[in-house]
Structures are given as C-alpha cells and as structure tokens.
Amino acid sequence: MDDLSIRIYGDPVLRKVSAPIEDITGELVDFSRRMGHFMVRSHGIGLAAPQVGKNIRVITIDLEYLERGRGVQVLINPVIKYVEGRTAMEEGCLSIPGLYWNVLRPEKVVVQALELLPNGDVREVEIEAGGLYARVILHEIDHLDGVLFVDRIPEDERRIAIAKWKRSMRSGRTS
Ligand code: ZN
Description:
Elements: H1 26-41, E1 46-48, E2 58-62, E3 72-84, E4 87-91, E5 101-105, E6 108-116, E7 122-130, H2 131-144, H3 155-170
Antiparallel strand pairs: 1-2, 2-3, 3-6, 4-5, 6-7
The chain binds zinc ion.
Zinc ion (ZN) binds near residues 95 and 143.
C-alpha cells in the first residue's frame, strides 16, 4: 500500500533543489519501496522523490521495462560523472501528464550513486548507461535539481508545448 500522490507542473516542490541523503534509515527504505510501487502502478519508467512531494535525492527506475534486470532500481545521491554524444528522444513525465516532446540530451552517461537493494542493503555503484536507460537517469537527476524536461526544449517550442498541455488539462484530456 502507498499513500503517495503525483505532484503536477506548477507545484513549487518540483522546482526546488533536493537535499542529499545522509543516512539510510528504515523510513527511507520504506519510502523508496513505496516510490517504486507508485511508479510501476502509474506506468512510469522512472520517478524522482520531488514528484511525490519529497525534496530528497532519490530516484527509482523500472529495470524490467528497460530489459536491464528485474524489478525497480533505487539510486540515492546519483552524480553524473561523464556524458557523451547528443541525441533527440521523445520524453514524457508523470508530472506533466499527456505531454510528449523531443528533447536533446547526451547519448551516454556514467553515474555514481548508492544503490539501495530490495533487502535494504546499500552498495556503491558506477553505472554506464546508453539509450533509454541513460535518458531516464538524466531526466530523473534533473528532477533532483528542480529541472523539468520542458526546460530542455528551445524556448519558442516550449511555449507551444506548455500552452498545448494547459489546454489539454483544462479540457480534461491527458493525452
Ligand atoms: Zn519527470
């Protein structure tokens, strides 16, 4: 069971820089588990803690969807060490439901983080990711810095995208 709910574009919690995790507590393990369940139930590939109202540096990634392993990966305090290339890919975001837009981002990324395993153990990891995996990691780390995917599209396009999204929200359509 979880009591989490998604924060939508316009909510100030999405614009704050999130704080690093200092201690791995039972509460944190429980929260990240709830995040994972919430993400999968919401059909997201990735989720960042600010999207459910907590400004802490935790992200979850659906490894099964990415065909990278089983279940949900939980990364704590992820830091980008290296990026390479540049590629456009269509992105969406649970916090801007129904909006999909092409975004330019690095093609590959190397990230260091603490990975919180399902049994509560923690290990240091260095992840080299490409394709959709890299895309999800970069999108979610942006959330930890208060950055949304629409900020990554050129300003004239962004205005069109946001206006389109606001119209669809008003008319009650989400896609
Ligand atoms: Zn997002």
